[in-house]
Design goal:
Helix content is about 45%, strand content about 15%. It is of the alpha+beta class. It has two domains: about 70 residues, 2-Layer Sandwich (Phosphorylase Kinase, domain 1), CATH 3.30.200; about 190 residues, Transferase(Phosphotransferase) domain 1 (Transferase(Phosphotransferase), domain 1, Orthogonal Bundle), CATH 1.10.510. The chain starts with a strand and ends with a helix. The C terminus is likely disordered.
């Protein structure tokens, strides 16, 4: 419905990109509103990973346009097609930045609704490589925070907009969306960056929609049998791809924190769900080395447990029974001495009596 041109801004001595909605589409109020909404949404965002919009206007023939920063590089779809799956650490680094851009948009009341690799542009900025820029807010849903009097509502419940391959289950159903729908799309993008494939096997758009709604995604580890994933990465991706929005990350910032934790090798996941956004876990995480405090605490119950188990004296009831006969003679041995002593006393007494009688 439009085109993007490279232009020069002499006063600022810089190149810019001009996006134009052709005049032949001006009769389409929905497209005009969509174009204006994209310009307005992007102009309200200042995150460094969101493409900047400088100005908006109309040409003499009525065609709408907006001027944005000029970017050199490739989008993520082009990179995956050219280079294949991305290194996990690189993919996590890129997507954590994308999450930051989306978090700002969500807090401003803007939901993108068309996140896909083509709308994330990887460039070099200030000498920093792998610097992503989020583009194309043309399908962005403006919530009440951004609504103006007289704003045209382009979508309502029951209508489906977006790209089927990257669409959340609730978006595929035409339901009312919130930021967690974008988080699902971010999960699909990261899944494709890591594996070079989508979470579902399908050929037609309608098949993808049905699979997003009804079927669990193919485990990431099955797509990457010949490659090793960092601990916790698959759990992080699969949490973003949960069917129920309540089971996903609450915010894009939480998703970014999870990816950063995995990249840094910090324990963050249990058997199925990450601990981000909740209270710290008091037990060691399965498959992840426990923190020193847990290691210190664990031996204590282990030292207490052997003590009741060392009831080997249960085998000693027979020992006293064996030893008692040995003690019995010791208890009986004084009797002969007592008898002998009594005899001596009697003998002495008899001798004394005899001597006394003779003296008389």
């Amino acid at each position: 419905m439009g085109a993007v041109y490279k232009a020069e801004q002499p006063q600022m001595n810089r190149h810019v990109a001009i996006k134009i909605l052709h005049s032949r589409y001006l009769s389409r109020k929905d497209l005009v509103s969509r174009f204006r909404r994209e310009a307005r949404a992007m102009s309200h965002l200042s995150h460094p990973n969101t493409a900047r919009v400088f100005m908006y206007g109309q040409l003499e023939d009525g065609a709408c346009y907006f001027v944005m920063e000029y970017l050199e590089g490739r989008n993520l779809a082009q990179l995956v097609r050219r280079d294949g799956p991305m290194d996990p650490k690189r993919a996590m680094h890129v997507m954590a930045q994308v999450c930051g851009a989306l978090d700002e948009a969500h807090r401003a009341g803007i939901i993108h609704r068309d996140l896909k690799p083509e709308n994330v542009f990887l460039t070099n900025q200030g000498g920093i490589d792998d610097y992503p820029k989020v583009l194309d807010f043309g399908l962005a849903k403006v919530t009440e925070k951004q609504m103006r009097p007289g704003s045209m509502i382009l979508t309502r419940e029951g209508m489906v907009f977006g790209t089927p391959e990257f669409m959340s289950p609730e978006q595929a159903r035409g339901k009312t969306l919130d930021p967690r729908s974008d988080i699902y799309s971010l999960g699909v993008i990261l899944y494709e960056l890591l594996s070079g494939k989508l979470p579902f096997e399908a050929r037609q758009p309608i098949e993808f929609i049905q699979l997003h709604v009804n079927e669990p995604p193919i485990p990431l580890s099955e797509r990457m049998k010949d490659r090793e994933l960092p601990a916790g990465l698959e759990a992080a991706v699969m949490k973003a791809l949960e069917k129920d929005p309540d089971d996903r990350y609450t915010t894009a910032a939480e998703f970014a924190q999870a990816l950063e934790a995995v990249a840094e090798g910090r324990p963050s996941f249990g058997a199925s769900k990450p601990i981000f956004g909740g209270p710290p876990s008091t037990s060691p995480v399965v498959g992840v080395e426990a923190p020193p405090s847990s290691v210190v605490q664990q031996p204590q119950p282990q030292q207490q447990q052997p003590q009741p188990q060392q009831q080997q004296p249960q085998q000693q009831p027979q020992a006293p029974m064996v030893q008692q006969p040995q003690q019995a003679p010791m208890a009986q041995s004084p009797l002969p001495w007592l008898v002998l002593g009594a005899g001596v006393v009697l003998a002495l007494g008899g001798a004394a009596a005899l001597i006394f009688a003779l003296m008389q």
